[in-house]
Task: structure prediction
Amino acid sequence: MSKKIRLAVLISGRGSNLQSIIDVSKKGMIDAEIAIVISDKKDAYGLVRAKENDIPTLSLSPKDYKNREEFDKKVVEELNKHKVDLVLLAGFMRIVTPALIEPFRDRIMNIHPALLPSFPGLDAQKQALEHGVKFSGCTVHFVEEGMDEGPIIIQAVVPVMDNDTVDTLSELILKYEHKIYPIAIQLFAEGRLKVEGRKVLVNKEGMSSAIYKLDDNNVKINPIL
Ligand code: GRF
Result:
């Protein structure tokens, strides 16, 4: 295994994606370790998960900052202090500004519970159900200015059934979220991702078994790999 990259995970709430990243990292399934978890909500349950796993945490209250830029500058200061290579937005309910995007261009990922560019923004699963789509899923993308925008790294597709509710669809999508985020992280850690305009090219040469292990038979994402 190559040297581990250092991750920051930014959260606002429950932190189930954070948990899945903690789990694969502890098992040594990704060449990455979480250097810090930052929350904009002091009572985010994800902070508890991080502390239980001895991961440094930081809670920043937006009301202590003049505007979004100032908040993001503080985040960047912390990311630099912790020598972070890759930033993961995982249920981070804030719009990020160029103050954060510029210094970490192509090094910030977000996960969204829909097949972008369909259904960006809040309540993506509800939007998908109300639209009547037959398939939905989740997307990991690099973060650019604009809500849920930026080059797409990986997506997983799930069928939408007639009797699905927001809860059942969200639960199924979440299962895939927990799979594709670690895969995206490992692809980055192995230096396989190259952004060309809107596209992310994945170098599949000599793909390591680490990535295939993340894509197990229970939840198969494999066609793109
Ligand atoms: C996930 O559905 C993610 O796609 C979206 O926010 C939710 C966060 O869930 N951006 P969790 O906090 O990781 O459990």
Q: What stands out?
A: The mean pLDDT is 93. The pocket of 5-O-phosphono-beta-D-ribofuranosylamine is lined by residues 11, 13-17, 90-91, 111-113, 174, 177 (CB under 6 Å).
